């Protein structure tokens, strides 16, 4: 006798609806941009009605906030953090290769949209601040783990301070934005930049 599938809770069903709407919005925004994407297009791609959209999001700006938080959260937790925590000899080169070759740099485009909406859209400014804080926290945590690894291998260790974390965040997001604007970036200059920020010997200059 086959088992009867467990019924999803209302919260689980709503979360699935939100995820499908966010997935659909990701594709629509990538193809048509924020201004060129309608709520009807998002709901049609997701297979829902406008009512389902408004049961989960106030408007496109509210959906954009959720999408940016999800995409940037995945970017820093699943990709940037592990790369920064690699052993000393691999760290800068691996991060540089990933920044210029892997996937579409949608996270910086979403951040740019949040910044544009911040003066007028409720929640956009707060979301932008929170997302950027997440980036900085992830970088700091990854560098702390990397320093522990370096200490066990005899590799040089560099003090971790707020200025260094901010510099790496600026470089990382800046490279992604340049890639979004011009399509291709040589890995060499990016490696040189990241080596100076991540693997330089000695203390940080304040």
What attributes characterize this protein structure?
206 residues; mainly alpha; 9 helices; 0% strand; elongated
Question: What secondary-structure arrangement, pairings included, does this model have?
Answer:
Elements: H1 10-32, H2 39-46, H3 50-54, H4 60-84, H5 91-101, H6 106-117, H7 124-153, H8 162-182, H9 187-198
Helix pairs in contact: 1-2, 4-6, 4-7, 5-9, 6-7, 6-8, 7-8, 8-9
How is this structure best described in words?
By secondary structure, this protein is an all-alpha fold. 71% of the residues lie in helices and 0% in strands. It contains 9 helices and no strands.
Secondary-structure element sequence? HHHHHHHHH
**Number of DSSP strands?**
0
Mean pLDDT: 80
Shape: elongated
Structural class: mainly alpha
Report how far apart the termini are: 70 Å
Approximately how much helix is present in the residues? over 70%
Please give the radius of gyration in angstroms. 20 Å
The description of the largest β-sheet is: none
Strand content: under 5%
Tally of individual helices = 9
Summarize the structure.
The chain has about 210 residues and is mainly α. Helix content is about 70%, strand content about 0%. The chain is built from nine helices and no strands.
């Amino acid at each position: 006798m086959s088992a009867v599938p467990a019924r999803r809770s209302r919260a689980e069903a709503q979360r699935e609806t939100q995820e499908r709407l966010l997935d659909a919005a990701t594709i629509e925004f990538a193809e048509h941009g924020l201004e060129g994407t309608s709520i009807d297009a998002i709901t049609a791609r997701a297979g829902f009605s406008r009512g389902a959209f408004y049961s989960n999001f106030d408007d496109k700006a509210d959906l954009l906030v959720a999408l940016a938080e999800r995409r940037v959260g995945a970017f820093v937790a699943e990709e940037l953090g592990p790369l920064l925590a690699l052993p000393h000899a691999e760290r800068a080169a691996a991060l540089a290769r990933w920044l210029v070759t892997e996937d579409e740099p949608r996270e910086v485009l979403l951040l740019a949209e949040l910044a544009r909406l911040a003066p007028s859209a409720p929640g956009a400014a707060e979301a932008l601040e929170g997302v950027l804080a997440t980036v900085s926290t992830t970088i700091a945590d990854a560098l702390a783990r990397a320093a522990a690894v370096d200490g066990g291998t005899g590799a040089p260790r560099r003090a971790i301070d707020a200025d260094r974390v901010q510099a790496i965040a600026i470089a990382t997001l800046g490279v992604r934005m340049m890639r979004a604007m011009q399509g291709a970036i040589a890995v060499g200059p990016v490696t040189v930049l990241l080596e100076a920020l991540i693997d330089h010997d000695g203390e940080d200059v304040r």
